[in-house]
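hey can u run this one w/ iron/sulfur cluster bound, need the structure tokens asap thx
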Amino acid sequence: MVVVVEEMVVVLMVNVNIKHTGVEISTPVYFELLKKNIPMKTDKIISDATNNKIFRLTIFITENCNFNCIYCYEEHKKEKINRIKLNAIKILLSNRVKSLSRLEIDFFGGEPLLCNKEILELCSFICDLQKDYDFKFFGSMTTNAYLLKKEVIKELISNGVKSYQITLDGDMTMHNKTRILKNGKGTFQHIWNNLLELKKVNLSFNVILRIHLSCKNLKSVEVLIDKINSELLDDRRFKVFFKPIAKLGSQNDKSLEVIEFNRQEEVINKLAKKLKVPKQEFRFSDDYVCYASKLNSLCIRADGEIVKCTVALKEDYNKVGKLNNDGTIDLSRNKFLKWSNGLQSMNKNELMCPKKYLFDHNSN
Ligand code: SF4
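ok here u go:
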């Protein structure tokens, strides 16, 4: 099986135009190998995670943020992407799209909307590439929605960014204790007004409201659910995702009251029952594969550093390479391959969160 994954990585490297050393380029035989070695049920999981016709990028377009959330694990030291790296991404994409059927880009931060101009520039560049090459583009964004005004989303949607993940920490009182502006002011009402304005936009898009759960905020989440039920859930473009918070390395980790792992499902099920339209709850499926496990997925930080996981940003094991100014990528082959170990073991937990399974686990 090791051979299978190494074949896949070699093929990925050829197509991404990666500068690499010591790697023999061999024939892309991995699909044949997969068919021989892996039962049908896992075939789709594997092919989504290894398909060379799919390319998934998470771009930290800026690592600056207008919020100062008390549990944030990011340091906000790296600023916005510079002109040289933005051009390097364009060259990378120009090379890569020639053999793609699907390009997925998630704009991440910091707060990506602080760099909306750069996002639109990149998306309009991709739309131009679509005139010459036959691939589909799916843009998404993880945003705090403070700057997500009606006019902004209209322009983003027309440039292919149609999926948004927006976080709320409870009702106004609770949310305003944790998701605050740099000056300490609460953000709930401003975000809520933006959501209501988005609802009036007559275009196709979807919003996942990511609702953080802790031992402290469950009552407040129930109040929020009532508000979501009455003001948003008549619109199928909005979905709710309950996410228990975790200690991810922020300086306030000690004060977080996280819900014990074995209670989480029960808590989520109880809250989900309160949704007016249960179908509008979003959940990861049992066979969810994190993008960090996928061979066709990379994250590019604002300074061009390449990582696999958007959480372990300080960890050396996550720093797998860099984007060069000429659009090529240098990858540390062994570090890169380690993240995709789940594709060999087919261990569900490893595929779902390789960081937790491979690295946190080892350090215990
Ligand atoms: S590896 Fe784990 S922590 Fe990192 S992005 Fe995936 S699920 Fe999140």
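The chain is about 40% helix and 15% strand. anyway lmk if its weird
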